[in-house]
Amino acid sequence: LGISCPVGLAGFDDTCPTQDFQAQYANLTLIGLLEDYKGKIIGTKYSLANLASTSVGDTMLEVEDFLCNMNVSFVERRYDEVKNDICGTLFGGVAQINWALWLLGISLEVVAIL
Description:
By secondary structure, the chain is an all-alpha fold. About 75% of the residues lie in helices and about 0% in strands.
């Protein structure tokens, strides 16, 4: 299968890796492919690490700063407080005063009639 080549055995030099394995994948053994893959992963790691020192890395930092600065949860909290103060407290107080004035007006009419 091309996992590893037997060493010192006659007749395996031309079939290691096997012809099917070479046709489907590569001229390397499975261990050789894994070593090649390991080298490519290490290269990718260094490329990604060096990405931070390029203009792309600067752009990534700017986007991160922008997202951190856009965390404006205090606006929602303040909006809820203002909404509660205006809609609940202020309009509730105006409604109470309104009903009190209506009750006072009706009471004065009843007293004036009697």
